[in-house]
């Protein structure tokens, strides 16, 4: 079985990157074996990459629902557990319940969105990863794994098509 | 007769390179500019930090500690004025906290491009202003250590707090807003923290490494981050509105003359945005000068913020007049007494000063583009607005309580030295936290600026070059 090698190609401009991703696919690099690193967000449709499956809105809504339930418990449950009669108001007054339940629902949404983005991005994750400081300097990096036997061919292809540098990246502790 | 064709022209008065979005520099240069600004701390900076730390010690450790030991008697609040400077400060700082969310979230939702370089400076203000605002209910409580009674947990005696009390609304709203705005500050910061991590050594690298959470800038990371920022931008706006509305309801829910008003919710929100955006301008002028961020913070940004301030000055005036007219026309004896107090009584100098700073000065100056694009003038105008907004809160809180329906129970209020020192201490806390943060966190969201510059270009239409924005999302 042929060995594989990890390469990183750095581009100064985004224009050739989607084409290069297509060429890498043509050279047998699977979608799961390549990743694009950039200093600013490029939507997947610009890169021609498959849509990232996004569960964040669902997580946020679930958090909002949990917040709503906690709000209802505190607003309805606590007066039932220990009745505090406020002059002129029923034991469970609806208008203040709406205010407080709203705040707790939003709290649930906010906290769950934060936890969701950490979960989805597998943060925090400081272990060794392929990275290059030039990414924040505007370079666009394609990190991919290819067959060792095709390395020279792919390197030449990338260099001919605008890659500033093609290297074997180090795994860096972030 | 021949007509000479006009040369290809930029349609505005200024050249395109005067616009940040149309004046890109290499990303590495921008990164360096932001990092260098963070790392420079001269003797002036440390003198200011030292002075502020001293004021915090005097105000919050000394004066507040003295009040805790001696009791609330050392404060100037007396019957009938039970809410004084502490609650005024609380309302004022909650107002300032609206700056970050308004500038960042609302302008993000509406894709206002000029927001890009100063969203973080505004978001930082929100978090620190909320920290300061959150101290005041504790200070005002007197027996600060009893604060936990507000938290609904089943204690030994099975005594639950009255969860429907407006005090609970306040606590929950402020806490929700503090959590939300801090996360909203943190999320867009992650890519810039990673940039700082890759260019730092020593303790800074360790700090940024921890805070950057292992960010690399993969498509998936960007996608999740952008989605989260979008959700937050939409979620934080109603929370922002609810916070100051609930603070207004603290007053509106009472039967106290001058407070019991259904207009107070939106009136307070508009006032909060008015003073908050003004405070953003003040901070931007200072950091631009102190940190030499002229490249990022340009006259165009002060111009845009000046327009927002002017619009909110109109809106504030509208609400102020609507509230005033209702009280005046109603003609209730106590309302008439309150209005007389403001127009001719001891409060009058403050009341007229408020009208000058909140209406006359902005209306006479901010319509002029030359004024709006001058950072120095903008600083003085927005500073005066914040003085006016503080006075407004003082009159509403302490001024209105001096008169009530029982003339034998009328009184006066003079803040004590303890109250003044605590107020100075809390203001110093805000400035100190901000000053420290400017040297620890990238104050300019570099990736957002670079993203904006990538999306902007000049497009030729006929004989004119016009700025064009590409929708990337």
Binned, the helix content of chain B reads 55-70%
* Annotated CATH architecture of chain B: Up-down Bundle
Structural class of chain A: alpha+beta
Order of helices and strands of chain B: HHHHHHHHHHHHHHHHHEE
Order of helices and strands of chain A: EHEHHHEEHEE
| SS element count, helices of chain A | 5
Quaternary organisation of the protein chains: heterodimer
Low-pLDDT stretches of chain B: none
Radius of gyration of chain B: 24 Å
Q: Please, how many helices of chain B?
A: 17
CATH topology label of the largest domain in chain A: Alpha-Beta Plaits
CATH architecture of the largest domain in chain A: 2-Layer Sandwich
Query: How far do the termini of chain B sit from each other?
Result: 51 Å
The helix fraction of chain A, in percent, is 40-55%
| Biggest sheet features of chain A | 4 strands, antiparallel
Overall average pLDDT of chain A = 90
Strand order of the largest sheet of chain A: 2-4-1-5
What's a concise summary of this model?
With 174 residues, chain A is an alpha+beta fold.
Structure in words:
The complex is a heterodimer of chains A (174) and B (473). Chain A is 45% helix and 18% strand. By secondary structure, chain A is an alpha+beta fold. Chain A folds into two domains: 4-53 and 128-173, Alpha-Beta Plaits (2-Layer Sandwich), CATH 3.30.70; 56-120, no CATH class. In chain A, the strands form two sheets. A four-stranded antiparallel sheet of chain A has the order 2-4-1-5, covered by helices on one side. Chain A has a two-stranded antiparallel sheet with strand order 3-6. In chain A, helix 3 (56-81) packs antiparallel against helix 4. Chain A is rod-shaped and about 85 Å long. Chain B has 473 residues and is an all-alpha fold. Chain B has one domain: Formate dehydrogenase/DMSO reductase fold. In chain B, 67% of the residues lie in helices and 3% in strands. Chain B contains 17 helices and two strands. Chain B has a two-stranded antiparallel sheet. In chain B, helix 13 (348-365) packs antiparallel against helix 15. Chain B is globular, with a radius of gyration of 24 Å. The model of chain B has no long low-confidence stretch (mean pLDDT 92). At the A-B interface, strand 2, helix 2, helix 3 and helix 4 of A face helix 1, helix 6, helix 7, helix 8 and helix 9 of B.
């Amino acid at each position: 079985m042929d060995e594989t090698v990890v390469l990183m190609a750095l581009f100064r401009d985004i224009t050739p990157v989607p084409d290069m991703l297509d060429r890498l696919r043509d050279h047998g690099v699977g979608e799961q074996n390549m990743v694009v690193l950039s200093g600013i967000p490029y939507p997947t449709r610009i890169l021609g990459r498959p849509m990232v499956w996004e569960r964040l809105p669902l997580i946020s809504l679930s958090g909002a629902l949990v917040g709503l339930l906690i709000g209802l418990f505190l607003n309805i449950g606590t007066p039932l557990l220990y009745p505090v009669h406020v002059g002129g108001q029923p034991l469970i007054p609806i208008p203040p319940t709406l205010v407080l339940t709203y705040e707790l629902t939003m709290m649930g949404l906010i906290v769950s969105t934060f936890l969701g983005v950490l979960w989805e991005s597998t943060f925090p994750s400081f272990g060794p990863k392929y990275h290059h400081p030039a990414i924040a300097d505007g370079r666009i990096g394609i990190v991919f794994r290819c067959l060792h036997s095709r390395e020279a061919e792919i390197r030449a292809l990338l260099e001919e098509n605008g890659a500033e540098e093609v290297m074997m990246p180090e795994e860096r502790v972030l | 007769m021949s007509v000479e064709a006009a040369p290809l022209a930029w349609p505005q008065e200024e050249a395109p390179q005067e616009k940040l979005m149309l004046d890109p520099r290499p990303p590495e240069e921008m990164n360096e500019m932001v990092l260098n600004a963070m790392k420079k701390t001269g003797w002036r900076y440390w003198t200011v930090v030292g002075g502020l730390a001293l004021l915090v010690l005097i105000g919050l450790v000394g004066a507040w500690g003295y009040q805790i030991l001696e009791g609330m008697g050392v404060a100037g609040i007396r019957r009938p004025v039970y809410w004084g400077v502490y609650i005024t400060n609380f309302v004022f700082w909650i107002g300032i906290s609206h700056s970050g969310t308004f500038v960042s979230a609302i302008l993000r939702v509406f894709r206002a491009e000029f927001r890009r370089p100063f969203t973080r400076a505004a978001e930082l203000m929100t978090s620190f202003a909320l920290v300061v605002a959150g101290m005041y209910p504790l200070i005002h409580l007197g027996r600060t250590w009893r604060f936990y009674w507000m938290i609904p947990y089943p204690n030994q005696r099975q005594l639950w707090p009255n969860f429907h009390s407006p005090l609970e609304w306040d606590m929950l709203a402020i806490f929700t807003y503090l959590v939300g705005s801090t996360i909203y500050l943190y999320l867009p910061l992650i890519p810039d923290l990673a940039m700082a991590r890759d260019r730092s050594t020593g303790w800074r690298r360790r700090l940024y490494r921890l805070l950057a959470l292992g960010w690399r800038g993969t498509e998936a990371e960007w996608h999740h981050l952008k989605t989260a920022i979008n959700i937050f931008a939409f979620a934080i706006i109603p929370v922002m509105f609810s916070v100051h509305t609930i603070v207004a309801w603290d007053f509106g829910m009472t039967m106290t003359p001058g407070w019991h008003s259904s207009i107070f919710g939106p009136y307070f929100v508009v006032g909060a945005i008015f003073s908050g955006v003004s405070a953003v301008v003040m901070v931007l002028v200072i950091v631009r000068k102190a940190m030499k961020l002229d490249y990022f913070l340009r006259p165009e940004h002060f111009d845009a913020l000046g327009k927002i301030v002017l619009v909110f000055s109109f809106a504030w005036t509208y609400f102020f007049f609507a509230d005033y007219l209702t009280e005046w026309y109603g003609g209730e004896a106590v309302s008439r007494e309150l209005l007389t107090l403001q127009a001719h009584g001891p409060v009058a100098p403050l009341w007229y000063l408020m009208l000058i700073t909140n209406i006359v000065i902005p209306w006479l100056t901010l319509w002029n583009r030359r004024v709006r694009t001058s950072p120095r003038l903008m600083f003085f105008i927005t500073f005066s607005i914040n003085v006016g907004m503080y006075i407004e809160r003082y009159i509403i809180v302490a001024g209105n309580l001096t008169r009530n329906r029982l003339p034998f129970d009328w009184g006066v209020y003079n803040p004590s030295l303890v109250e003044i020192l605590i107020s100075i201490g809390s203001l110093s806390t805000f400035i100190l936290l901000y000053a420290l943060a400017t040297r620890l966190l990238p104050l300019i969201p570099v990736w957002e600026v670079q993203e904006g510059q990538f999306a902007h270009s000049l497009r030729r239409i006929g004989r004119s070059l016009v700025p064009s924005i590409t929708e990337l999302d």
